[in-house]
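Input record (one chain):
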Amino acid sequence: MSSRDNTLAPNNSTNNNTITVKNTSSTVYYVFGGYSDNTNVYENTVNISGGTINGTIRGGATDLGLAINNTINISGNPIFGAGAGLFGGEAEENPTFEYSIKGNTLNLKTKDITVQHVGNFEFVNFYLPNNIKANDTILTSDFVRRLNQSKIGIGVMNGNTLAIKTGDKVTLINATPL
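The corresponding structure, as predicted from the sequence alone:
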């Protein structure tokens, strides 16, 4: 794995990678599940459960191929800085659904996540933690990109008993469309 310039990414690998950030002694600026200049990037997983991230997290990124079927899992208590973003896939030369969004998944297993940008996910799943309460927000973002094409799932984490009651409101995404 490369960690040059505070970037976490696999070395010369475009698919079936797993990158995990649990806790870091320094700030991480970029995290890539897979990256390529000229080929498909797919089926990568990025797990974030701690540490400080000030840049963009991408499940997969490529200039010329597909960036699909990647997963980002957010749990625990990570800290996202002012420039942080979450993107399932990014196909620079062809940012269409088929090239940049298809099969990409964001799983959120904590609350109070704030990032500048979020986008390019076909699936966004909210797993409500046991400490969720009325008027809490799961995800806040200054800008969302193409989440209007996302399928939203909501569940309770295994074994959790929620403190919310009938009539309570929880905001899943508080964001400005881009």
